[in-house]
Every structure is written in C-alpha cells, then in structure tokens.
Amino acid sequence: MSSVMRAVEISTPGGPEVLKLIQAPIPTPAYGEILIKTAYAGVNRPDALQRAGAYAPPPSASPLPGLEASGEVAAVGEGVTQWKKGDQVCALLPGGGYAEYVTTPAAHALRVPKGMDMRQAACLPEAYYTVWSNVFMRGGLTAGERFLVHGGSSGIGTTAIQLATHFGARVFTTAGSDEKCAVCTDLGAERAINYKDEDFVEVMKAEGGANLVLDMVGGSYIARNIRAMANDARMVHIAFLTGPKAEINFAQIMAKRLTVTGSTLRPQSDLAKAKIAEELAEKVWPLLNAGTVKPVLDQVFALEDAAAAHARMESSTHIGKICLEV
Ligand SMILES: NC(=O)c1ccc[n+]([C@@H]2O[C@H](COP(=O)([O-])OP(=O)(O)OC[C@H]3O[C@@H](n4cnc5c(N)ncnc54)[C@H](OP(=O)(O)O)[C@@H]3O)[C@@H](O)[C@H]2O)c1
C-alpha cells in the first residue's frame, strides 16, 4: 500500500473554492481504531461551517473535512475485536472523511445495512447519530406526540421525519418550497408547512401545540417555537442557521413548563458516541436492514468536485443528502 492518498483540504478559511485536492499521508489506526478505505463520504452543513472557519475541529481530530463515510475496513488498530479487514462499514468520523483513507474509533462504525449500497450507507451516520441522540435520547419523543422539525427536506430533516413517523409520533415540518413539502409528506409527515406562505406557529397552535421541536434555524424561530409549543414540551437546538441570539420571554417557559436544550455531536466523548451507536444498532439498524427507513439522496459529486458539492448545499436547493465518490 502506498503511504500517500488523495484528500481534500481546507486550504484557508473561505468559500467553497478553498477546498483543494491534495496528497496527504495515509493515517494509521491507533488503539481501538479502524482504518477505512473510503468508498463515499457524506457532505454535511458542519463541513461548510468548518470550511468557513466557524467550526474548528477538536484538537485531536484530522483537520481534513468530512464527518461520515462508507467503505471497507483496510486495517484494525490494537484492541479492536469487533471488525476485521474487508468488513463493509459506515462510520461517524472525528474528521477526515474527504479522503481515500480515514481512521475512526471502531465503536463508531456500523455495518452497511442489508441491500444498501455504499453510496446510501455514507449518508447514514451523521444524520442518524444526530437525530437519534437529539430527538429520542435527549428529546424523549414518544408515540402519539406532536413533533415539529424545521428544515424537513435537509439530511437531518428527512431522517427525523422517517424515524419519528415510524415510532408513532405525529410529524409536522417546515420547508422552503412546495416541492420540498411534498417530499416531506411522502416520507410520512402529517403536515409540511411551506414557511414562505404559512405561519408554523398558527398551524401548531391549532393542533394543540408541539410536544417536541427540533430546531436548526434559531434567530426569530426561537421565540416562535416557544409560542408553538404545548405545555410540558421540549425544544432541542442542533444549529442556528439564522443566528444564536433571541429575545425570549422566560415567563412563557415557566408558564408552559418547557424544557429547552440542545447539543452538538462532534465534541462529545468517544464513549458518548459509542453509546449512541449501540442504540442505533439495536433500535434503528433493523429498520434500515428491512428497508422501512432509508436515506434520501440528493446528488453525488466526485471527490475533486467537493467545492461544487458545498456550493449546492449552501444554495439550499438540495433535498436530502449530498455525498462525494472517493
Ligand atoms: N448539533 C449537531 O450535532 C448537528 C449535527 C449535524 C448537523 N447539524 C445541523 O443541522 C442542520 C441540518 O444539517 P444538514 O447537514 O442536514 O444540512 P442541510 O441539508 O443543508 O439542511 C439545512 C436546511 O435548513 C433549511 N433552512 C431553513 N432556514 C435556513 C436558512 N436561513 N439558511 C439555510 N438553510 C435554511 C434549508 O431548507 P429550506 O429550503 O427549507 O430553507 C436546508 O435544507 C444544519 O444546520 C447542521 O449544521 C447539527
């Protein structure tokens, strides 16, 4: 095996054009890690934030972008017993997915679901880890509850709609076009609200209020979410696309007994991520194996076209996931 590989680096903080194809050393798996020969790498919003200089990788992570990939196990580090060379996996990564080889803790990999190809498998880890940990583990969504997810056509949104529907929640979502709304209802949402024409607050109030809100928009949505929530409801923040600051009337939080929380995945401990992977393997992978839920794929770009992939994501014209063929 050669000691160098093709990879995409962030040459300097900036727009999509700063993503450059380079030769980089092939990483070596440390204790408890696997080396994956990447087939496809998923593209996520946090990659664009990192590229723009607004989301620094944790100190121990690869500075190369890429938080998820599918591929074949090429080598295992000491202490790894659950995977062997040749196994087909998809994995959450600390970084470095836009490359021919990447290392990650063995406990953060999951088997490629039955009947799924490597392209689809690359689109699973980031969205499924994020949705499972925030909607179910943190947000405690249960059957029969009214669940409002913003950005329903995003990678995260399409995953949240399918899983929440499967587990018996009533799903309401927002999206920026009628075409996106139609995709959301096809995936199981009871109601998709084109936020350019309609006020989600009024829709949710007419339904009795949301019991759980998954928010990625922030800004003015924060106060509006609170107005759209039922008594004893929860709001989980995973991003602030329009900004993290808002003027809130905390009396409403007290009067409705609301819980406001949130999380980011990447800085969490290896152990916390392994715990999410365990729950996914037990509760969600059987659904993927059965084809009950599946990733929604928007477009595949070649590794060297990572800049075009980022530009498409930032245009918000995409529906579902974008990935790179490595
Ligand atoms: N906390 C975590 O651990 C974590 C992990 C992964 C991702 N995230 C976050 O979750 C969000 C979704 O991630 P993703 O990878 O699925 O991204 P994505 O597919 O690009 O989703 C973003 C979606 O938000 C909608 N949106 C609403 N208001 C927007 C605005 N002002 N600007 C841009 N888009 C807007 C867009 O659709 P419309 O046309 O409907 O507006 C777009 O589809 C991102 O913000 C990402 O940073 C958080």
Task: Give the class-level CATH name of the largest domain.
Answer: Alpha Beta
Q: Write out the CATH superfamily name of the largest domain.
A: Medium-chain alcohol dehydrogenases, catalytic domain
* Number of helices, counting only DSSP H or I runs of 4 residues or more: 10
* Beta fraction: 25-35%
Topology order in helix (H) and strand (E) letters: EEEHEEEEHHEHEHEHEHEHEHEHE
Unreliable stretches: none
| Helical residue percent band | 25-40%
- Rough shape? globular
Structural class: alpha/beta
- By DSSP, the count of extended strands is 15
Bound molecules: NADP nicotinamide-adenine-dinucleotide phosphate
Give an overview of the whole structure.
The chain is α/β, with parallel strands linked by helices. It has two domains: 4-124 and 267-325, Medium-chain alcohol dehydrogenases, catalytic domain (Quinone Oxidoreductase, Chain A, domain 1), CATH 3.90.180; 128-262, 3-Layer(aba) Sandwich (Rossmann fold), CATH 3.40.50.720. The protein is 31% helix and 28% strand. The strands form three sheets. Strands 3, 4, 5, 6, 7, 14 and 15 form a seven-stranded mixed beta sheet that branches. A six-stranded parallel beta sheet has the order 10-9-8-11-12-13, with helices on both faces. Strands 1-2 form a two-stranded antiparallel ribbon. Helix 6 runs parallel beside helix 7. The two termini are 17 Å apart. The mean pLDDT is 97. Bound molecules: NADP nicotinamide-adenine-dinucleotide phosphate. The site of NADP nicotinamide-adenine-dinucleotide phosphate has 24 residues, from helix 1, helix 3 and helix 4. The site of NADP nicotinamide-adenine-dinucleotide phosphate (NAP) has 24 residues, from helix 1, helix 3 and helix 4.
